[in-house]
Every structure is written in C-alpha cells, then in structure tokens.
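Problem statement: downstream parser choked on a complex file, so we are re-checking the raw output for the zinc ion run. The parser issue turned out to be on our end (a line-ending mismatch), but while we're here, posting the original submission so the record is complete.
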Amino acid sequence: MAMLGLKIDVDTYWGMKNGVPCLLEILKQFRLKGTFFLSIGPDNSGRAALQLIKNPLFLKKMMRTNAAALYGWKTALYGTLLPAPMIAFSFPQIVNDIIAAGHEVQFHAWDHRRWQDELLQKSEDWIREWFSKGIAGFEKLTEKKPTAFGAPSWVIDDRVLKIIKAYNCDYLSCTRAKSPFIHEIADVLEIPSDLPCFEEIDAEKGVSIITDLIKDGQTHVLPVHAEVEGGIFQNQFRELLKDAINMGIKVVPLKEIKQKLDIKSLHKRKYKMELLPGRHSPCAV
Ligand SMILES: [Zn+2]
C-alpha cells in the first residue's frame, strides 16, 4: 500500500507556540498521525539576518516566501535585538499534547539556527555538547530517549554521523535523498524526505505539484514545517491531506515506514551535499 510519511519539523518558538497546535487540530480532524521533530533550545532565528548579507540566494528566498508573513517580525529579531527564547522547553504542555494525541516525537535540534548556519565551522566538542544538551532536554520533556534524529536543514557532516552513532538511533531522517539507504560511518537507516517542502515550490501550484509526485503508488515522505503548514499554508496542507486520502494513500508517522522497509535490501553509502531547487544552501542527499 502506498504510504505518505509526515515529517513535521518544529524550528522556531512561533512554530511551537502557534504552528503545532494548529497542526494537531488538522491531524485530529483527518484522524492522522505524524512524526514531530522538536527543536528544544534557543530560537536564534534573528541571526538569519546575517545570512542576508552573506548569501544572496537566502535574500531571494526570503523575498519570494514573504518571510515576514511566514515567521513574524519578532522571530526575525530573536537572538539579536531580542533575547533568544527556548523553543520546546517553553511549552512542555504542547509537547504533552503531541504525545497524548498519539504522534511520534523525535529530536531535531538544540539550537537549530546555529547548526544550520555554522555547523561546518564548529568544533567536534561543540557538536557533542549540542547533542548532549538537546537530548537531555528531550528526555526531560518526554521522559524517554529519542529513537531518531533529523538534522536541521538537512545539514550533516562525517563528525555528526560519528557522534550520532553512539546514540543508537533506530533511524535518521537527515537527508533529501530519493529513497531510503544505510548511512556509512553511523551504520544506521536513513528515511529521507524525498518530496519538496511547500516553501520551495510555487505556492499557488504547491498542492498539485505534490499530489502529482505521490500518485505513483510508492512510499514518500513529506517535509512539513510547523511554521509553514501550521501557519500561512494550513489550507493547502489540508487540501493535500484530503487529496492523499482520496487517492487511497495511507498517511503515517516515519516509524511506520521503518516497519515496512526491507532494511537488508538497502544500499550502504555515503551522503552527498547538493543544492536543491528552491533552497539557498546545500542539503545532504
Ligand atoms: Zn528544521
């Protein structure tokens, strides 16, 4: 049976506070479950302003997606003019609500923004500390260890895979590859997001572009962002879920995709970094 995995990333304070409750309501209406990947620590979104100066593609993306409407002006100042608020740590009740509704919850980030912009310049000690703070926070909020990790913005390097190996994850969801594989170095299953995100494609045609991609009867994973599908694109997200259900596609959390995979038949390989259409920096694939 064709399956559509929902990989729902929570990247910001705004997304945790407003986007997650909105998505919980939508998923409840459709009686669907997804996997929420939580950012635990500080929301340094405002530091993205530095990227405007350094990376012209980022400015183009911000203008195309109307970033102010997407994230709000306050978000644009967190970590610069305003102090960085904690993301999941600020909303333990919302974390409980996600779990109580029966969704899968996994680990996405300690400090999402710094990882996304600075990982490659950071030391191995910085990465270790990032994981230990983030995973300790995750355990405090959920009373269990995460069994999967989804890297912020699909940025990883060899050091990350070496460090994550020690956490014995059931799977990673760190790439935009076209199909699942086994990571070299970490020796762990990768369940990639093979579909584009709404903010990478023409918003007007977003739903039809994605329904075209999922009608082939195969298993796919949709990258969802609490800030986006739980915000200005909520109607498109509803429409897409309705289309998927009408096509007979089973909408599932990622752990259900893992259960159906024939893991022994998958290739072991190294990820590559690639600049995908509609993105401003390279992703692992
Ligand atoms: Zn993210």
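For whoever reads this later: The pocket of zinc ion is lined by residues 9, 11, 108, 112, 152-153 (CB under 6 Å).
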